[in-house]
Amino acid sequence: MCSILKDTKTICYKDAFEWLCGFDMYGWIFGLERITYLLERLGNPHSELKAIHVAGTNGKGSVCKYISSILQNAGYTVGVYLSPHVERFSERIVVNNQEIPEKNLAMLVARVRPLVEEMKQNNNTPTFFEIVTALAFLYFKNRNVDYAVVEVGLGGRFDATNVVTPLVSVITNISLEHTDILGKDIASIAFEKAGIIKDHVPVVTAATQNARETIERVARERNAPIVCIDQTMRKRMSFKGKYQEFVVQGSFKDYTVKTSLLGQHQGENITVAIAAIERLQMGGIYITDSDILDGIAAASHPGRMEIVSEKPLILLDGAHNPDGMSMLAKTLKEDFSSHRLILVLGVLKEKDIKTMVSAIVPLSDVIIVTKSANLRASDPLFLKETIERFDANKKIYIEASIPEAIDHAKCLAKQKDMICVSGSLFTVGEARSYLLSCEMTAPSSIR
């Protein structure tokens, strides 16, 4: 099909990507039967991977980034599988900070496609996430990665990634999310996430209270040694605008680390990552103290508490649930309280919008509600009405698109003001692409 066309690579990629996106309509269908069957037909590439498996409510992506950065600094080739992406689909599948090239993705889709179409004919259609997971495992095997850092998509027990038997399992923190799928209470959600714990495989968690009790119980049942992280194990020493410094208590020693990822909650993420790395060290993997310090300093996570402009000051954070929004509010209050806040807000309609709004609205001086191009984006008028029910006197504007909202915010911003874009990763992704494209096209005298 593609061979008769001049621009073979581009057309093949476009065709492959469009075919892949056609499976997004199937949404989330839990169960490991489809992914297991598909991977078996592909030769079980996941069985050859040395994986670190990361679940949790918030902080999963940051922990994955810290762990992979540390391993890379130790000289290893590291694959990272994350979801969702912020700007480009290729962000989901990365080896040593290099996103999967279009030609490689097209080739992998060509291999997987006949098997998926056969499954479809047999009424056993895999989901978008299941297919992408298989592609990621195939790519990591083909690249001969030393380690694969794999983020859970949703839940844990029945998530497509839960076919791996990792070197260490990580569960960051647990809060109410996806209650229609994972359960109505913390213990139920924790049980689903604890489903990634394997027999005799060490687990690290930052979960607290009922969630921690559930995870500890599952770990005992599976004879999995467990390390529990709490807030006494880290202390922030300084914050200097573009980076912050923590002292973190490890199993072997204390570490003084610097990170460009902002927010006090990064102390928890770093502590979790170091605990996971120490378990790898105990398993015989060579990683030095310098690898840990340099890896944490080098880690980046676009769209998560990221400053993308200083004039005006613009912060992007993909807070997409109540806990994430509370963390953002806490960071704004602790580290940016001297700034008047202009909030650009776009949220997906299925989220707990009322609780998210209650966390961030009190800190906002001006709010611009908008929507991403995603079909699940909430109507800005509904966002405005929700905010007004919370605070009838708040100054609110409506803009139809992210670029229009950004431009409006820039027009309103004065020298000491801060623009914060949040509410969903889709909102942040569109904002980031637009802001960086504006920067690239600006005259050199302005940049």
Indicate the topology.
Elements: H1 8-21, H2 33-41, E1 51-55, H3 60-73, E2 78-81, E3 93-95, E4 98-99, H4 102-121, H5 128-142, E5 147-151, E6 168-171, H6 179-182, H7 186-193, E7 203-205, H8 209-221, E8 226-228, E9 234-239, E10 244-249, E11 254-259, H9 266-282, H10 289-298, E12 306-310, E13 313-317, H11 322-335, E14 340-345, H12 353-360, E15 366-369, H13 380-390, E16 395-398, H14 402-412, E17 417-422, H15 425-441
Parallel strand pairs: 1-5, 1-6, 2-5, 6-7, 7-8, 13-17, 14-15, 14-17, 15-16
Antiparallel strand pairs: 2-3, 3-4, 9-10, 10-11, 12-13
Helix pairs in contact: 1-4, 2-5, 3-9, 3-10, 4-5, 7-8, 11-12, 12-13
Kindly describe this structure:
This protein is α/β, with parallel strands linked by helices and 447 residues long. It folds into two domains: 8-298, UDP-N-acetylmuramoyl-L-alanine:D-glutamate ligase (3-Layer(aba) Sandwich), CATH 3.40.1190; 306-441, Mur ligase, C-terminal domain (Protein-Tyrosine Phosphatase, Chain A, Alpha-Beta Complex). It is 41% helix and 17% strand. It contains 15 helices and 17 strands. Strands 4-3-2-5-1-6-7-8 form an eight-stranded mixed β-sheet, sandwiched between helices. Strands 12-13-17-14-15-16 form a six-stranded mixed β-sheet. The protein has a three-stranded antiparallel β-sheet with strand order 9-10-11. Strand 3 and strand 4 form a beta hairpin. The radius of gyration is 22 Å and the shape is globular. 47% of the residues are buried.
